[in-house]
Design the sequence.
């Protein structure tokens, strides 16, 4: 199936074009917004929360169009409406490495130093959103499970 028709089928999908980046001032709330947007198949919110370049489990989308297409593929492939957000935890990258060891090879190239990780518990499975702070607030730069 071509991606353009898929985008037209996603409920609440905004018209093609630029989406203003979402302002996130709290990593926990931002991570919860990601999780709720995934469950609701809210492509517009996911794109706004995922400014390019953005890494999807180690594969980087370089443009906003690539980010949109990747989220559309993910939403099309997974029965996300069955998910429930059971909680969110926020940890520093250094704390995560200390607790769980180094990241898997697919994520080793990401700039983890100084980053913060939001962990969304979706039906007992972790979805990680990686964040860096900039002058406007927190900016997500990667998602992984």
Sequence:
């Amino acid at each position: 199936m071509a991606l353009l028709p898929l985008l037209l089928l996603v409920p609440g999908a905004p018209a093609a074009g630029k989406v203003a980046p979402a302002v996130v001032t709290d990593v926990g709330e931002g991570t919860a917004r990601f999780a709720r947007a995934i469950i609701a198949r809210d492509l517009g919110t996911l794109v706004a929360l995922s400014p390019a370049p953005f890494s999807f489990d180690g594969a980087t989308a370089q443009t906003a169009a690539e980010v949109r297409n990747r989220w559309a593929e993910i939403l099309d492939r997974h029965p996300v409406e069955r998910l429930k957000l059971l909680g969110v935890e926020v940890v520093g990258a250094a704390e995560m490495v200390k607790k769980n060891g180094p990241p898997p090879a697919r994520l080793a190239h990401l700039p983890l130093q100084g980053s913060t990780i939001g962990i969304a518990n979706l039906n007992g499975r972790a979805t990680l959103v990686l964040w860096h702070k900039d002058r406007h607030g927190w900016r997500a730069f990667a998602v992984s499970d």
Residues 1-17 have pLDDT under 50 and may be disordered. The helical segments are 3-9, 27-40, 43-49, 64-77, 93-100.
